Amino acid sequence: MLVHSRPARRAVHALFCLLFLPVFALPLLVIVVASFATSWSGALPAGPTLTHYQDIAQGDSLSALLTSLLTALAAGLAALTLGTWAALAAERLNRRTRRLLDGLFLLPVAVPSVAVGLSLLVAFSQPPFLLNGTPLIVLIAHTVLVTAFAYQSVTAALARLDPAYEQSAAALGARPAYVLWRVKIPLLLPSLTAAAALCFALSMGELSATMMIYPPDWVPLPVQIFAATDRGSLFAGAALAVVLMATTLLVLFAVSHLRNKSTYR
Hints:
CATH architecture of the largest domain: Orthogonal Bundle
Number of domains: 2
Mean pLDDT: 86
Helix content: over 70%
Distance between the termini: 28 Å
Strand content: under 5%
Number of helices: 11
C-alpha cells in the first residue's frame, strides 16, 4: 500500500469498511435476507420461509434463467470475437481511423441502452430484416451493448503486449497467421478470458434494452425480476435476484479459474 504506518493503514481500512458496507455489502445482504422472508419488520425483512425458492423450482423461472444464460453466453462469445477482431485490425490503422473505430464501438455505451433497444426495434421491424419478435434480436442487442467492453479490454492488452515476441517469431520465418494463433493469441488469453467474463456478467444483468425487444417466448430473468417487483412481489423478486447473482458468480468463478490457468501457462 501507499500508506506505510500502521495507524494510517488501520484508518484507511476503517474508512474503506465504512464506505463499502453501507453502499455495496448491506444492500446485497438485504436482498439475500428478503429472499427468505414474507414480510417487513421495521427496516428489516421478517418471517423466514423457503416458499420463494420453491416457487422458482416449480415455475417458469428456471426457463428464464436458462434464457439468460444462453443469451449471455451467445452475446459474450459474439462480442469477444468481434471485439478481438476489431482490436487486432485497429493496430494497423492510422491514429485518425483508429479514433473513429473507437468512437463507433463506444457509441452504444455512450447512449442510454433503452435507445439502443428502440433503434434495433425500429431497424428490424420491416422486411427484409424482420427480426422483431424473435430471440435473435435480443442476442443482437446484448452483443451491441457489450462488444465495446471486449474491444477496449483487448485494445488495452495489445498496447501492453511486448512486440519483441511477434518480431522474434517473424524473424524466424513464421507466417503472420502462425504468429497470430501461436504467439499473439496465447499471450492475450488472460485478457480475453477477463473480457469474456465482463461481457457475460453485463449481459446477464441487462434490462433496459431487453424490455424494448424481448418476445414472449424468450424472457430473460432480469425481465422476470422487474415484472415481479412491479407487481409488488418484492420478496419473490429478491429470490430471483439471488438466483441471478449466484449463477453469474458461479460462471465468473469458473472463468477466473480458466484465466489463472492461462496466466500460469
